[in-house]
Here is the input.
Amino acid sequence: MRVTKKIKAEQLRRLSIAYAGEGTMLKYTSPFTLLVAVVLSAQCTDKRVNIITDRIFPRLDTPEKMGALTQAELEREIHDCGLYKSKAKNLLGMCHMLSEEYDGKVPEDFDKLVKLPGVGRKTANVVRSVVWGYPAIAVDTHVFRVANRLKLATGTTPLEVEEGLQKAIPKKDWSAAHHWLIWHGRRVCHARKPDCETCILQDVCPSCTVSVPPWKG
Here is the structure.
């Protein structure tokens, strides 16, 4: 199947209906708590992250409070999260930098965000999009997988896929489409075995394993 601009628009139209109003699954109460949750979510499910943050945020919801812990103490707090040792180190570095350079506040500026320990493009895009409404597409494993399977945007790196999605999706829809792709990856287009039998994109997906008549448009 040759994925034309018309087919991409149809893919997005259907996703927008199926996942209308869906946002981040992560629980947060402030820019800082969202930033922490996104850092913890690397190679860890959002469900697991929410269990951890439900436990720690009542006590550790500011850079000052979390930054007062030792490395060993923070490791114990987040021990049930993947890569907890490196995440604890990054979170402490992030807390100290926020306290010392930004008066304890998470900066809105992208370049300032990615200078924080443990914060890359994906994390910065998520926080800026969710908290302040900046148009952004954060490419996590779900977005990367679904975009490539749909050929909505193809690439071998998250940055290539991000740039491809920015071209394929109207800028006003970037932030919403980011969530559409995530939820579709979670619910239908699974990594090991996509549920093509129930997928709403069967006839407009070049990777579909179900034999269906092609979309006429």
